[in-house]
Amino acid sequence: MRPQDAERAKQAAAARVVSSYLARERGQHRLEVLINDTLYHEQRRLERENRKDPGVRADLSFYRGVRRALSRADTGELETLVTSMAGRFASEIAGHFDERVYRVATTLVPAGLSLLLSASEPHKLASLSSLRSALREHLLIQGAVDQVRALMSRGTLVVVPTHSSHLDSIALGYAVYLLGMPPLLYGAGLNLFKNPLISFFMQNLGAYRVDRKKNASLYKDVLKEYATATLELGYNNLFFPGGTRSRSGAVEQKLKKGLLGTAMTAYVRNLQAGKPNPNLYFVPCTISYKLVLEAETLIDDYLKEVGKSRYIIEDDEFSKPRRILNFLRSLISLDSRVVITFGEVLDIVGNRVDPEGTSRDARGRPIDPVSYVRREGQPVHDPQRDSQYTGEVANAVAQAFLRDNVLMSTHVVAHALLTLLRRHNPGLDLYRLLRTGGGQPALGAGLIADEVDAIRKALREQPHGPRLSPELLQPDALAVVDDALRHFQTYHSEPAAVREGEQVRHRDRNLLYYYANRLRHYGLPGFDRRDEVAHG
Amino acid sequence: MDECVAVLGSGSWGTTLAKVAADNGRTVLLWARRPELSEEINRTRRNQAYLPDISLPDGVQGCADLAQICARTKLIFLVVPSHGLREIAAKLGDLVSGEHVIVHATKGIERESHKRMSEVVREETCVRRVGVLSGPNLARELALGQPAGTLVASRYEEVFVRCQQVLNNGYFRAYSSEDVIGAEVGGAFKNVVALAAGIAHGLGLGDNSKALLITRGLSEMTRLGVAMGAEPATFAGMAGIGDLIATCSSTLSRNHQVGMRLARGETIEQIQAQMQMVAEGVKTARAIQEFALRHELDLPIVRAVHRLLYEGCDVPTALRDLMATPTGIERAALG
């Protein structure tokens, strides 16, 4: 993002939040409540932080000042106080912009990845060019690529991918580079910026900072307005609509509407401002891995207490450079691919969009998207209506996720193994089965292959996805089993399952569960309907 | 300026809704499948076939041209039988924009697909702001200006607000809800209970039996609704218990008539051979039974009606079996 635009977005965000509070009923009173709410949440957050950290000390001192001023503030000063708090949040979100870094980042994205690798093992630095080609070989970009490219010049894109790993944003950032698209703006968690290896990439993506520890509603409002302002300035954005990495391994079906909704706000404002290219397009996209870098931590977190997972994980595989390196090496040595699949582009209410940028209804008839927001001839905001429209988009994106989810050998073989284990241990509930493994420490490879055959047959009969990765289509199901086992044995600290002669021994059943969950939501046997609701 | 509205469907219910809106000073474009009917309405101010003794206000304008209707109004009430709704919706799909609002007042589930009517509208048009009007509304009583209420459900607040502005008056009250599924399931399900009520009536059963039927019917309706994603509380309102009470009290509906004749020992084939149109309850019973089997729902009344209609069971056997189903905790059934 150009520095002057970052500044504009920052200022617009703070100013709009303040004026939106003032515009509401009893605006002044709301401001006072807002200040107290922010002070309360920030105080609580800061209590848990390290007080020696200069940033924490600066925050503490700032809020002391706010508290003092609040005690004697008249109504006019309340506005000044909120403006200064919102401005502080906005500055932090936008970050300190280094134009030099930005220029390097946008032109030399692949160099970033080599930097990542070289920094972790400087003595084994591979040559830049070989890394670049390796990356290119191990990233497969498919789906509506041409459409996405064509629409770039017709409006602003909001890319909405599935999320299983912190590597997602890097893979996607690189894909976008390969496609010749400008970098995507991305609200990355503060913990990612603290990781020196990855912080560089965050800049590549044009990332802004999101501090998930900040719970004050003022902060969340400023964050949303910042994203909205960047969309209005025409910057393509990347939102992970699941909100966080999928803990269970399943494709996200319950999507968060908060950030998605900023697109509608930006669209109406674009129309009201008479911009030449007011359209916003949602680009659903799936990112599929045979192996997931953080699988072990994510599934452990999920199983610890379903529904009460930690929202922020700072000590996972992603924070260990060696693990990242091992992961990438495994990827390369196994000749495994990260597959990015772009789905059909959607308009502001979830209609399909053709490559010319025209919205189409379910029967293919052209529609003018402006008609959805027009009232008496003028485009208008209507928060209740717009949040429902965003719900429609969320549904359409969730369907696109299921349609374009790419299943791989690891997913199907994990599901086959678990299905067999469940069949052999009918009395055990799932959690006990995962813990103990039941009565059979190993299963015949042939048996697993038969199960794989049955599963892929059932998958092929699904009317709306998923996609099957090429190795799953090979006639020999045993080869599919071996491909998955090779992957399981290569990267994880404990292999999910290993081949021992004609037998396959299951070792880390939690991992099996994690990978098998990628088949969830298709109504396949082995996934209880009620269970699916709990998984979201 | 007050919004001009359209009512598509000139049966007794469509004509009545048009009259209510026109009584409120609105211009109502009333569309009929047959242009002759539109002409007749404009000429005589009456709908001779469906509401012969009701005089229609001047605000009701018969109109056979869908394109003209869609150009003149953005608020469309769709009041056609469930089996014809998709065809009309598809025609509308060529004419509407995202600015239109479609509220259907059709109680039924699509026969082959088992889809709710709002789903059909969504599939056939680009309209997002869709709603459903459903409640205890016997057209003739309302046309005579007798006090009544109904439910308008939509995910979009402005849909029910606009409907309330158009419909509310001294004799009609439209309540609002966001639970589209609940309103649609209630409206469709009550037709099956109406059939059962007709049977009870035909057997000469009294008020205790009727109360048992209504209460357990409500329980089944709620279970089905919750399984389809409805809010249980909806069934305690206009589109649930309200519609059940009216339905089971009225002896004039087609569903009730079919039930009474079944009780007299006629088969459904014999009855249908003499009726011009299939009663909604006959189609709905099959759709719901299929849904219940697929989702392992226990709906004894639906099962009994289904056995009578489609499995060659006679009335005494079906009733005996129904009364033999185990009784459990009453509230457990309410989901």
Estimated share of beta-strand residues of chain A: 5-15%
Q: In the CATH hierarchy, what is the class of the largest domain in chain A?
A: Alpha Beta
What is the residue-averaged pLDDT of chain A?
85
Class inferred from helices and paired strands of chain A: alpha/beta
Task: Briefly say what this structure is.
Chain A is 55% helix and 11% strand.
Verbal overview:
The complex is a heterodimer of chains A (536) and B (335). Chain A has 536 residues and is α/β, with parallel strands linked by helices. Chain A folds into two domains: 99-401, Glycerol-3-phosphate (1)-acyltransferase; 407-535, Orthogonal Bundle (Arc Repressor Mutant, subunit A). Chain A has 23 helices and 17 strands. Chain A is globular and about 80 Å long. Residues 102-112, 114-128 and 532-536 of chain A have low confidence and may be disordered. Chain B has an eight-stranded mixed beta sheet, with helices on both faces. The model of chain B has no long low-confidence stretch (mean pLDDT 92). Chain B is globular. Chain B has helices at residues 12-23, 35-44, 66-72, 82-93, 117-124, 139-143, 157-167, 180-202, 207-228, 238-249, 254-263, 268-273, 280-294, 300-310, 315-324; strands spanning 5-8, 28-31, 60-63, 75-78, 101-104, 130-134, 148-154, 172-177. In chain B, helix 8 (180-202) runs parallel beside helix 11 (254-263). With 335 residues, chain B is of the alpha/beta class. The interface between A and B is medium-sized, with 22 and 17 residues.
Features:
heterodimer, A: 536 residues, alpha/beta, Glycerol-3-phosphate (1)-acyltransferase, Arc Repressor Mutant, subunit A, 2 domains, seven-stranded mixed beta sheet, three-stranded antiparallel beta sheet, 23 helices, 55% helix, 11% strand, globular, B: 335 residues, Rossmann fold, N-(1-d-carboxylethyl)-l-norvaline Dehydrogenase, domain 2, 15 helices, 52% helix
Write the layout of secondary structure elements.
The complex is a heterodimer of chains A (536) and B (335).
Chain A: H1 3-23, H2 27-47, H3 54-71, H4 75-94, H5 99-107, H6 109-120, H7 128-137, E1 139-143, H8 145-152, E2 156-161, H9 167-178, E3 185-189, H10 190-194, H11 196-204, E4 207-210, H12 217-232, E5 237-238, H13 257-272, E6 280-288, H14 295-304, H15 321-333, E7 338-342, E8 352-353, E9 359-360, E10 366-367, E11 374-375, E12 378-379, H16 383-404, E13 406-407, H17 409-424, H18 430-436, E14 442-444, H19 445-460, E15 467-468, H20 470-473, H21 477-490, E16 497-500, E17 503-506, H22 509-516, H23 529-535
Parallel strand pairs in A: 1-7, 2-5, 2-6, 3-4, 3-5, 13-15
Antiparallel strand pairs in A: 6-7, 8-9, 9-10, 11-12, 14-17, 16-17
Helix pairs in contact in A: 1-2, 1-4, 1-12, 2-3, 2-4, 4-12, 5-11, 6-7, 6-11, 12-13, 13-16, 14-22, 17-19, 17-21, 17-22, 19-21
Chain B: E1 5-8, H1 12-23, E2 28-31, H2 35-44, E3 60-63, H3 66-72, E4 75-78, H4 82-93, E5 101-104, H5 117-124, E6 130-134, H6 139-143, E7 148-154, H7 157-167, E8 172-177, H8 180-202, H9 207-228, H10 238-249, H11 254-263, H12 268-273, H13 280-294, H14 300-310, H15 315-324
Parallel strand pairs in B: 1-2, 1-4, 2-3, 4-5, 5-6, 7-8
Antiparallel strand pairs in B: 6-7
Helix pairs in contact in B: 4-5, 8-9, 8-10, 8-11, 8-13, 9-10, 13-14, 14-15
